Amino acid sequence: MIRKYDITRTTFRSVATALAVWALFATPLSASAFFQDPVEQKEEAEYNLYKGEVLDASSKKPLVFASLSVEESNISTITNTEGEFSLKIPSDLTQANITVSFLGYSTQTIPLSQLKEERNKILMVSSVLKLHEVNIEVPKDAESLVREVLKSKGENYFDAPTLMTAFYRETIKKRRKNVSLSEAVVNIYKTPYTSLKKDGVKLYKARKSTDYSKLDTVALKLQGGPFNALFIDIMKYPEYIFSPESLDYYTFRFDHSTRVNDKLIYVISFEQLPEILDPLYKGQLYIDAENKILTSAIYSLNITDKEMAARMFVRRKPKNAKVWPTDVAYRVDYREKNGKWYYSYSNVLLEFKVNWDKRLFNSVYSMTCEMAVTDWKKNMMEDFPKAKDRIKTSIILSDEAIGFADPDFWGQYNIIEPEKSIESAIKKIQRQLRRANSDGGTSIP
């Protein structure tokens, strides 16, 4: 008889607490002022903006989530799903170098003086290795290496309170069309990786708009906001995927090796044991071979029971509809500074089907959230926002602000460059809002 382990169900629940979806009947489109904390407003510094794309040197294909950082600073950004980037750099950093890195490619260092304001093309050269080509002793046991990495997080990751500035975006698509966009700049009060205290998040600036006409009278809302992306930080929150007990329910094996930032990286594949019936995860861990450090993780949930998955992820729905996830995928990346590593980027993809009573076809929605740390500094005073100022894990970001009116809304803050599909959706929504305003609707700021 195959045993159904209770521990896996508990682990699955812990992830779902932050990744919940509200499928509600839509309400009429309205508009209100952008959310902005007046206490946090600061004088805009002058900056130079550089735009371009990062491509594979051979195929000229875009490299998605490539990292760009400014040397001698903590400023950084990443490329979007079309390989495009925009990087804002203070005007006084005229002699800086830009470091461009991507998993499996040789790192590039480019003097800022060589970049133009627009249409920069950065070509990256692939650097993939086989284990037998590596002049380093390969551990025999992949699982033991993973356990060692998780155990040594206090030595390798930030051990001091840190204040991070991050850009966060949520996107809801009906099939391939964007129907809801939410964006925010947040302050993350990151506690040391050895601390059991959870990180605090304060919303600084946000904007949002939704085209409810494309939602079949249903508005899907993602509960959790920035915490959805933050809790994917495996080294801070290992209990959401690799608790000490659940590690026993996986198989780990060495895959090919690669490089990132010119460091040798082991790639370890993992998946749940076949006798485990409740859904766990499968994917790849990218581990620094020399220092035993997790640099990236890409994995997905093994959804075998859609009814149970629906109970875990769907908080509320119309009575005449069934809603369940068909794909749940995650990614987290870390970056190194002065010998210590820190959380730098993560994303979550949730794909759902909505099956309506007495309708021939299903509706398919995908919900994506991503967050990129664009600047940080040590939190020397160990400041932490009061409870009334912190956003809660139950937040629904799209309820906080409405409208896409000001093209310069983000000012000096680095953001993830919007994809062309998002840009076109924003323009379409802006036209709809202006039309509604001219017909006597609520004014848009």
Automatic annotation (TrEMBL):
Regions that span the bilayer: none
Keywords for this protein: Signal
Signal sequence residues: 1-33
Protein name stated in the entry: CarboxypepD_reg-like domain-containing protein
Record-linked Pfam families: CarbopepD_reg_2 (PF13715)
Keyword Protein biosynthesis included in the entry's annotation: no
Source organism of this protein record: Zobellia uliginosa
Keyword Thylakoid: no
